[in-house]
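pasting for ref
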Amino acid sequence: QVQLVESGGGSVQAGGSLRLSCAASGYTFTSYYMGWFRQTPGKEREGVAGINRLGTTTYAISAKGRFTISKDNAKNTLYLQMNSLTPEDTAMYYCAATSNPWPALEPRYFHFWGQGTQVTVSS
């Protein structure tokens, strides 16, 4: 059974940093494309960053230069380092996995989801 469990969210002031983690189990971690998404109430879930099995990354425009996605295959763990946070980054953050080797960073292409971790950035 596939499980994705996020952690590392919290409250931080603008300009601060957080590192999110996503522990994966129940499937071959190295074979799946992994992504981070976020969602605020009343808005659609949006892609933040993605990483393929070879470590090639892609970022939403809002994340480029501030966020870094990475993974540790030995630990079956996905990370999202977030720097220079702004109140606009406040959202529930989700990690997701798909067997599609190079999907667009859109929720409809991802099969498995975690429960989310809340990030709140105050001004």
